[in-house]
From TrEMBL:
It comes from Microlunatus soli. This is Putative N-acetylmannosamine-6-phosphate 2-epimerase. PANTHER family: N-ACETYLMANNOSAMINE-6-PHOSPHATE 2-EPIMERASE-RELATED (PTHR36204). One of its GO terms (biological process) is carbohydrate metabolic process. Converts N-acetylmannosamine-6-phosphate (ManNAc-6-P) to N-acetylglucosamine-6-phosphate (GlcNAc-6-P). GO terms for cellular component: cytosol. It catalyses: an N-acyl-D-glucosamine 6-phosphate = an N-acyl-D-mannosamine 6-phosphate. The keyword Plastid does not apply. The keyword Isomerase applies. Pfam families: NanE. CDD domains: NanE. Its EC number is 5.1.3.9. Belongs to the NanE family.
Amino acid sequence: MTLDVLQRLRGGLITSCQAYPGEPMRHPETMAQVAESAVRGGAVGIRAQGIADISLIHERVPVPQIGLWKVGSEGVFITPTLAHAVVVANAGAEIVAVDGTRRPRPDGLTLADTVRGFREQSDALLMADIGSVADGLAAAEAGVDCLSTTLCGYTDERPKADGPDLEVLAELAATVDLPVFAEGRIHTPAQAAACRDAGAYAVVVGTAITHPATITGWFAASISR
């Protein structure tokens, strides 16, 4: 996989098309349709979860896809092992997002071990989902291709702010020689623009675009006072 994939994402919006377990939209066909609509609206890439979703979206949309596999919901659960990463790549993801924190991984490998093993089995790119500046620096040293602020506020290193963690984003963008993607709690176009101003290579938005239950809740709460 060439780094041209990253160039196609540069400066653009990536739409995260994921539904939580138990939701009516939790179906590969639905997520593929959401992805197709997002591309029509201008998304330059898609982020998706689950092998069936990744595979179908790969067939349906012409833009690069960031794929991941959530195993559980706590600790290291975003594409937590080398084996999971390889399966995600084989399903059609051009970029595989893995947990890029410094926490112990379920298979006992370090992130550097995972990167080396992955390179031997796939030519897809690796994105490290990180939760702090220290995570980002360690992931860059481990040899990943890009970083994302996905886990900022979801580990014990950073507070969970109402919006994106612009502080971590700006520091990493100014420090590492890798693309740094903004993701996490980006709920408005103004917040997305702020991420770009802080140095984001590209911006990933999920809930505010693809999660009707949450969006409806925002509006319902605003008028029930």
